[in-house]
Each structure stands twice: as C-alpha cells, then as structure tokens.
Amino acid sequence: MKELPKYIEEQISRSGEDHFLEFKEKTSNIRQILIEVCAFSNSQGGQLFVGVKDSGKVVGVKDPDGELEYLKGKLEIGLKPMVYPKFNQFTLGMGRGLIQLEIPESPEKPIGVVTEGKKWPIAYKRSGEESIRMGPVERESLSFKKQGNRSGLKYGSLEHKILGSIDSEPKNLSQIQKITKVQRPVLIRKLALMYSRELLEVKLEGGKEFF
C-alpha cells in the first residue's frame, strides 16, 4: 500500500466537495456511496474518497483491504450496467488507510442503482456537490445520446402537438400529458428524443422535470 501523496492530501484539504469530488468517512452507508458512483458515471466522472470527513479532514478507515473488497462487491451487484472505477489505497499508519475511487464517465449510461421494490435501477446525476435523482425524460435521453444518429427524430403531427403544448410557461410531464392526451411512455420517449436533439430544455424543480 502506498503512502498518501502530498498533492492528494492538499487537494482534499484545499478543494472540499464539488462537482467532481466527494468525501465519505465510512462505508457504513453503502447505498449513498452507490448513489455517488452512479452520479459520477452519468455525469463527467469524478473522485470519491473513503476515509475523509465532510470537512476535508483525512481520518482513514480501519482494515482498508477488507473495506476495499467490500466496496468492490457492493458496486458489482448494486449498479446496472456495471461501472469500472480505478481503486487506489494509501496508508496512513496505525493500521488505517485511505481509499480512492477514480470514476470515469460511463459509455454505458444511464447507470442506475439497484433498489429493492423497484423494477428498474434508479439513475442519479451530479449537480454541483450533490448527487440527485434523474427524471424519466433525462434518463431516457441518455440512451438516445448513446445511440447517436441511429435514434432519429421524425417531426410529425404528434411532435408538433407536444411542442405546441409547451408555451412560455414551463410545464411538467403530467401537465403536458393532460394537454396532449398522449400516453405517458410515448410522451417520455418523444420528449427525451427532443431533449437529446436540443429542441427543448429540461429543469428539475421539486423533484419534477419541467420543459
């Protein structure tokens, strides 16, 4: 196990948590760690350190080898599709160590957290120094962006009706559905295609997507 490089120690103490950096003191709340890794994978990537307080104080974890294997096992079964962070360990002395996860932006996004009682994994993204749940349209749009030109958008009467329902006042999915009478799965798909082609903007407010 390597000693903690000075530049990483300075990065942690100087930067604090941000869009690309997250601290966790322990692995006890493993679901939150899964959410952070998921969010980085669906965004532009980032780093997660286990053994660091929110304040940026490096305290390390006991049995870093065991904690690392525990993390790897939980990530393997807790995220779908799988992600492949780079794991690094640094010794802090007295049997304690610091674990670093370097998480790249995933080419397989949307990545989701496997959740008991839910049919589909729940996707998250990074927003500032927080990891927030993605709405259904933004999540679906990631699949279209991944497909590139293969996910063609045909602008017909249905698309005209949907865009026509979005005037100067932002509307959420339920409001657009009420106006257009389009079935929800079809509406999500059409809005996602439009968003992936930058024909409309999406903002998350109060846990709902507004267009």
| First and last CA, distance | 50 Å
Strand content: 15-25%
Contiguous helical run count: 7
Oligomeric assembly: single chain
Q: What is the helix fraction of residues, given as a range?
A: 25-40%
Q: Characterize the main sheet.
A: 6 strands, mixed
Radius of gyration: 20 Å
What would the average pLDDT be, to the nearest integer?
A: 92
Report the order of strands and helices: EHEHEEHEEEEEEHHHHEE
Shape: elongated
Give the low-confidence spans: none
Number of strands: 12
Structural class: alpha+beta
Describe it for me?
There is one protein chain. This protein has 211 residues and is an alpha+beta fold. The protein is 37% helix and 23% strand. It has helices at residues 6-15, 30-42, 64-78, 136-147, 157-164, 173-180, 184-196; strands spanning 2-3, 21-24, 46-50, 61-62, 79-80, 86-93, 96-103, 112-113, 122-127, 130-133, 203-205, 208-210. The strands form three sheets. Strands 1, 2, 3, 4, 6 and 7 form a six-stranded mixed beta sheet that branches. The protein has a four-stranded antiparallel beta sheet with strand order 5-8-9-10. α4 (136-147) packs across α7 (184-196). It is elongated, with a radius of gyration of 20 Å.
